[in-house]
Design a protein that fits this description.
It is a single chain. The protein has about 230 residues and is α+β, with helices and mostly antiparallel strands. It has 2 domains: about 100 residues, no CATH class; about 130 residues, no CATH class. Helix content is about 50%, strand content about 20%. Strands 1, 2, 3, 4, 5, 6, 7 and 8 form an 8-stranded mixed β-sheet that branches. A hairpin with a 4-residue loop joins strand 7 and strand 8.
């Protein structure tokens, strides 16, 4: 009967790394397809949020295993050490993923010719009540628009007056939100001159978030964004 060779320190660390990769793949899938769907991953800080998770999942756990694993230790002591590492990693992953949830977009709000991506922190900084944010609950971001004057000059004048008077920016006025339509003809008026890209089947529109600004392709039928192009790229 063949004797199973005990795991070496390096083998245990590699095994831990493979398990961590599987966990990371699951979390990345969740972020890419639900929390930051499509181009919002690049535009709205998806990668910035996942960096903490990556550091914890791929570095902390496997490195701790490499340090403490010793096949010569008594079994009980080895199980205790590895259990403590698992606990530390789970707590750190939980904290990292909580940060991802905090920065995930709750709403994408179209104002005149620009989409504004807003997360929970954006609203809380303006003392928006938690109860009001219930309207924006859900795993995926909600799409809204705010009715503004048709004329760009009139809109800019209204916008400037509001800023000078210290009023809340329109994109953060939840009471003004209207559900964004999927009707292309109606949407053309709401988007105020956005360019339709026939090849991609989407509108090329400006987009801004707390992390970066640029342009993005918006499919009105699926309300999905793709092909983010950063500003000054």
């Amino acid at each position: 009967m063949l004797m199973r060779k005990p795991l070496s320190r390096w083998s245990a660390s590699v095994l831990h790394l493979l398990i961590s990769l599987a966990i990371l793949a699951l979390l990345a899938f969740t972020a890419l397809f639900w929390l930051f769907p499509g181009g919002l991953f690049q535009a709205a800080g998806g990668w910035e949020g996942l960096q903490i998770v990556v550091a914890v999942d791929l570095v902390l756990g496997p490195c701790l295993t490499l340090i403490v694993f010793n096949p010569m230790k008594p079994r009980g002591e080895l199980v205790r050490d590895l259990s403590l590492i698992a606990l530390v990693q789970v707590l750190a992953l939980g904290g990292g993923f909580w940060q991802v949830l905090k920065v995930r977009p709750l709403a994408v709000v179209q104002v005149f010719d620009t989409f504004h991506v807003l997360n929970r922190e954006d609203y809380l900084q303006l003392n928006v009540a938690e109860g009001e944010l219930e309207r924006l609950s859900g795993w995926m971001p909600r799409y809204f628009y705010v009715e503004v004057p048709e004329s760009q000059a009139e809109f800019l004048a209204q916008h400037t007056r509001a800023l000078l008077n210290g009023e809340t920016p329109l994109q953060q006025r939840i009471d003004l939100y209207r559900e964004l339509t999927t009707d292309r003809q109606v949407l053309e008026k709401i988007l105020h001159g956005a360019v339709w890209e026939a090849e991609g089947g989407c509108f090329r529109v400006d987009i801004e978030s707390s992390y970066r600004s640029g342009s993005i392709c918006f499919d009105p039928q699926t309300q999905r964004m793709s092909d983010f192009v950063p500003e000054h790229s």
